[in-house]
Amino acid sequence: MKFTPYVMTWAILAVIVLALALYRNLMALHEDDNLHIATGEEPLIPKQLAFYRVMDRIDRWGEGLTAITVAGGLVLAAIYMYSRLPA
């Protein structure tokens, strides 16, 4: 059985997960940790809410793709090890 297409698909998925993690870390550099509730800070509240919605979306995609990548890698490893057993 040829594993090359499956391993390539898994590797592309792993690169996507790593790129998403890098993108999330770069986005987090622009994070404003202060809670804006004062009267003069009202224009900052919608910007902060929008930023955290984007971060939440990135986190959900990252968690899902990471789980799929790990599970796929484990399945590929198990199938490969099973195929290498002596007949």
Description:
The protein has helices at 4-28, 44-83. The two termini are 15 Å apart. Helix 1 packs antiparallel against helix 2 (44-83). With 87 residues, it is mostly helical. The protein has one domain. 75% of the residues lie in helices and 0% in strands. It is rod-shaped.
Key terms:
0% strand; mainly alpha; 87 residues
Q: Helix/strand/pairing class, anyone? A: mainly alpha
How many strands? 0
Global geometry: rod-shaped
How much strand content do the residues show?
A: under 5%
Number of helices: 2
Major sheet size, sense and barrel closure: none
Mean pLDDT: 92
The structural domain count equals 1
Query: What sequence of helices (H) and strands (E) makes up the elements?
Result: HH
Ordered list of secondary-structure elements with their pairings:
Elements: H1 4-28, H2 44-83
Helix pairs in contact: 1-2
